[in-house]
């Protein structure tokens, strides 16, 4: 699922994203360019340096995960 970044994701917001991902047992990958990171890794999320206007690929088929990410208000479809 492609998502657009609405807000910068660093420090506190990255921690919120990782906490949301850790609510699920599924493997959740975030892909940006040539990077592919585990959404449960704070260091990985920080390394992506997500900024408004970026597009990511959320590699999951679980709609609950997609909803949880959208509820953070960091992303839009």
Describe the 3D structure.
By secondary structure, the chain is of the alpha+beta class. It has a single domain, classed as HPr-like (Histidine-containing Protein, Chain: A, 2-Layer Sandwich). Helix content is 34%, strand content 25%. The chain has helices spanning 12-21, 42-48, 63-71, and strands spanning 2-5, 29-32, 35-38, 55-59, 75-76. The mean pLDDT is 97.
Domains, number: 1
* Overall CATH class: Alpha Beta
Query: Strand share of the residues?
Result: 15-25%
The CA-CA distance between the termini, in Å, is 8 Å
What's the helix count?
Answer: 3
Backbone structural class: alpha+beta
* Parts with pLDDT < 50 across at least 5 consecutive residues: none
Q: What is the H/E string? A: EHEEHEHE
Instruction: Characterize the largest beta sheet: strand count, sense, and whether it forms a barrel.
Output: 5 strands, antiparallel
* Percent helix range: 25-40%
Global mean pLDDT: 97
Radius of gyration in whole Å, from Cα? 11 Å
Q: Report the principal-axis shape.
A: globular
Short description:
The chain is α+β, with helices and mostly antiparallel strands and 77 residues long. Helices cover 34% and strands 25% of the residues. It has a single domain (2-76), classed as HPr-like (Histidine-containing Protein, Chain: A).
Topology:
Blueprint: E1 2-5, H1 12-21, E2 29-32, E3 35-38, H2 42-48, E4 55-59, H3 63-71, E5 75-76
Antiparallel strand pairs: 1-4, 1-5, 2-3, 2-4
Key descriptive features of the protein:
single chain, 77 residues, alpha+beta, Histidine-containing Protein, Chain: A, five-stranded antiparallel beta sheet, 3 helices, 5 strands, globular, HPr-like, HPr family phosphocarrier protein, HPr-like_sf
């Amino acid at each position: 699922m492609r998502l657009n970044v609405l807000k910068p994701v660093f420090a506190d917001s990255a921690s919120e994203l990782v906490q949301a991902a850790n609510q699920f047992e599924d493997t959740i990958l975030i892909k940006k360019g040539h990077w592919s990171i585990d959404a449960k890794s704070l260091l990985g999320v920080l390394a992506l340096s997500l900024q408004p206007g970026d597009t990511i690929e959320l590699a999951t088929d679980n709609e609950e995960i997609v909803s949880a990410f959208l509820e953070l208000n960091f992303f839009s479809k």
